[in-house]
Amino acid sequence: MSIKKTSVFSVATAAALAVTLTACGGGTGAGSASGAYDKNATVNIGSLYEPQNLDNTAGGGQGVTEALNGNVYEGLFRLTDDGKVEKLLAQDYKVSDDGLTYTFTLRDGVKFHSGKTLTSADVKYSLEKVLGKDSQSARKSNLEVVKDIATPDARTVKVTLSKKSISFVYNLSYVWVIDSQAKNLKTTEDGTGPYKLNKWARGSALSLDRFAGYWGRAAASKQVVFHYYKDATALNNALLTNAVDVVTSEQSPDALAQFKNNQNYKITDGNSTTKLLLAFNDKAKPFNDVRVRQAVSAAIDDKKLLESVWGGYGKLIGSMVPPTDPWYEDLTEVNAYNPAKAKQLLAEAGYKNGFGITLDTPNYDPHPTAATFIKSQLAKVGITVKINTITPDEWYTKVYQNHDFTATLQEHVNDRDLVWYGNPDFYWGYDDKQVQQWVAQSEEASSTAGQTALLKKVNEKTAQDAASDWLYLYPQIVVASSKLSGYPHNGLNSQFFAYDIKKTD
């Protein structure tokens, strides 16, 4: 079965990670190998996720993160493929004793692709762009703790927060530093990364060239080209015919057989942070009753759904938290599949004879397949489901903005996004004062251990309350030519670092 995440919904996260020093661009990727490689090679990357535009504060979508994050644009910090935060454009930083003031010292000699030298004014502009009125950045709300941004000199940025935020440095790893004088950022770019934009042929390909003026270690290959395909079959055919060297995320597990036991290809099964959710409107009947949410969760055989869609790949998680998050716990037994228990809970809630609901379903895979499966499962406990298929744009307006829904399906890409259950105004409307308190306290924690302990409580409470039904965690399957090494293994937040990819003849 093909799965096409053409419009995966990314939501903002909050977390703190250990910050380590890095010398320059680069990190260990899958298939890493030493030895001779072609430094003048062109690496062809196959993807299903073409950017909507090239501005990640203007609705660029998953595709713009995949192609440009880390490759074209960099932040003060970088989230590595294994989930650590490293200093990048920030050479150093200090935090005041009260945790409210962060002073960053920028690396010297960093240039934008236009040739302009990076200054503190560019960092200030980039932060303000994320926080702007029209910003569609998934990080906007996390960074609203920023009270003031000062630039005492060209290499110093002083940020004052309105309250403590242990996640502040982590959240900065998502803020692209952009030339404050750049224009037309939906179709052009001016970043500091190891690659610069060559050409974007909409509907076809986006090519990146090695930036000769890069401040760090040069990109391993001369050119990278992202080729865009409409479906998984075309993507796999491109790999089989050598039109591309690697696919960023395999979306057709049934097709893996043609690559297995073939010395020309390598398959890696890494960690994903993408969760498929059956989200309830917790403020509206019948899902304002916790027993109904628990009943629906218990009525759906998540294991059978995962097997039917992914055929042995992926994971059951039982909560919003994937295993790569520090506050992960195996909660798959909470509200586990139990149709008899589901019927009992429905009766206790006053729905002995069931009820009917509309399930708003995005029109791209796997949502229609999952919706049909859920409809069949819920019918067995007396719940009638009407499937309302909508486009991603309709979903964003109807469900996310207007909260005009009863139940919906959606993917959530980001790591560490459990904290959204602490926001009663988020689209699913989960409103628990204790959870809100724990989330707020976790952000003001003095240590990561304290933060982790509090968010484990949030994880357990939201799972017990069936705040949503977390159906499964996507696998992250990368298929590549055996000639390639240095590509990312995991799928954190849709980024795909290409600068370390090496290609042999």
What percent of residues are in strands? 15-25%
Choose one word for the global shape. globular
The tally of helices reads 11
Distance between the amino and carboxyl termini = 34 Å
Give the strand line-up of the largest sheet.
9-10-11-2-12-19-13
What is the rounded Rg?
23 Å
Instruction: Tell me roughly what share of residues is in helical segments.
Output: 10-25%
Give unreliable regions as ranges: 1-28
Main sheet overview = 7 strands, mixed
- Name the structural class: alpha+beta
**Overall residue-averaged pLDDT value:** 91
Number of strands: 21
Description:
The chain is α+β, with helices and mostly antiparallel strands. Helix content is about 25%, strand content about 20%. The protein has a seven-stranded mixed β-sheet with strand order 9-10-11-2-12-19-13, covered by helices on one side. A five-stranded mixed β-sheet has the order 16-15-17-14-18. A four-stranded antiparallel β-sheet has the order 5-6-8-7, with helices on one face. A hairpin with a 5-residue loop joins strand 5 (about 90-95) and strand 6. Helix 5 (about 290-300) packs antiparallel against helix 7 (about 340-350) and helix 10 packs antiparallel against helix 11 (about 450-465).
